[in-house]
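Lab notes, practical 5.
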Amino acid sequence: MKKALQIVKFEEMEKKTFEVTLITERLCEICDKKIDTKEKTMKTIHISNRKDYDNLLTRAKAYDHTEVDIKNNKIYFHNHDYPGEIHPSCIEKL
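Output from the prediction step:
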């Protein structure tokens, strides 16, 4: 079960290794709706002390939102991107 990083306590993550995945939703330049989603496994991190946890909280601020799946030891950074692409249906509306 995924939970927002901000509500996950240090004690839940302590002494665990997590796989970090970046999820990027590519959005249409016209309607702001999702074109597609790309997932990329970035690295693994180990939360061994409070400093590691605080560093993760700081790093998470660079993304739209961050989720943690404690059961499966995964962290998901979510971002949006405007790649300069437009849905064909949006082009017809122009």
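Observations recorded by the TA: Residues 2-93 form one domain. The chain has one domain: 2-93.
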